[in-house]
Automatic annotation (TrEMBL):
Belongs to the ABC-2 integral membrane protein family. The lineage of its organism: Bacteria, Bacillati, Actinomycetota, Actinomycetes, Jiangellales. GO terms for cellular component: ATP-binding cassette (ABC) transporter complex. The chain crosses the membrane at residues 29-49, 69-89, 110-135, 147-168, 180-199, 246-264. It comes from Jiangella alkaliphila. This is Transport permease protein. GO terms for molecular function: ABC-type transporter activity.
Length: 272
């Protein structure tokens, strides 16, 4: 007598397996999980004696200023980069094709991936905040409204990054090219989206290009959480733009979902 297992239970088991697999991969841990923490440490050490100033007012140290960008970057690395590369590899080696032939519901597979992203992403963010506060003396916000902003930025950024990663996984032509095809454009976006530089200091045409993509808006939303209110003046518009941030991140989430539904494949193109 067979016993029916709910898709939710299968998803939990799948998520547990995905989490274990993620942390067993050295490349994933270093270049996705630890990368923002390493970069924050480098910024804090190299520019430890300097401040990001705002006119004649007292500035803040580099570690605090770049913390929001590192959080935003970490969200995209864990969600977009991880899924885009891992799915391309699983499609290439036939894992997706074999899984599609099992009784496991497709929704359980994707929920397992989402569960892994949530656990890894939250773990990374908590560790990043802890390192920033303990090692570099970054003052974290105490206002509940700021943490509410952090929550919706995090959810929209993670969800959008996940579906875009699934959609983008069909772009690499092979598993060997997946890392280059995924990591290269993401590095460029980090440089032009206010992750490694003060966004307002970039040329206006680069600002316009970055404004098309979600990372710029996610980084800006995170700056509104962790930076003093007076630093709102440093934004191009002179405002944190919470409304446009929520709208554009939501639009990218919808676009990603539509592309996923239309383009996701369980097997390679040459498999027919």
């Amino acid at each position: 007598m067979s016993v029916a297992v709910s898709p939710a239970r299968i998803a939990r088991s799948r998520a547990s397996l995905e989490i274990k697999s993620y942390f067993r991969e050295r490349d994933s841990v270093i270049f996705s999980f630890l990368f923002p923490i390493i970069m924050l440490g480098i910024f804090a050490v190299v520019f430890g004696g300097d401040d990001v100033a705002l006119g004649s007012e007292q500035g803040i140290d580099f570690a605090r200023y770049f913390l929001p960008g590192m959080i935003a970057s970490g969200i995209m690395l864990v969600s977009f980069q991880t899924l885009a590369i891992s799915l391309a590899i699983e499609r290439e080696d036939g894992t997706l094709k074999r899984l599609r032939g099992t009784p496991m519901p497709p929704v359980s597979y994707f929920l397992g991936k989402v569960g892994m992203i949530l656990v890894v992403g939250l773990s990374q963010t908590v560790l990043l905040l802890a390192v920033a506060a303990v090692a570099f003396g970054v003052e974290l916000p105490t206002d509940p409204a700021r943490w509410l902003t952090f929550a919706w930025c995090y959810v929209l950024g993670t969800a959008g990054g996940a579906v875009l990663g699934i959609a983008y996984s069909s772009v690499p032509k092979s598993a060997k090219s997946a890392s280059a095809v995924v990591v290269g454009p993401l590095i460029v976006l980090q440089f032009i989206s206010g992750v490694f530089f003060v966004f307002n200091d970039l040329p206006s045409w680069l600002q316009n290009v970055a404004s098309v993509f979600p990372l710029k808006w996610l980084a800006q939303g995170m700056r509104s959480v962790f930076l003093p209110d007076r630093f709102e003046e440093l934004e191009v518009s002179g405002s944190w733009q919470h409304g446009p941030t929520a709208l554009i991140l939501s639009l990218w989430l919808i676009v990603g979902l539509v592309i996923c539904v239309r383009t996701f494949r369980w097997q390679r193109r040459d498999d027919g």
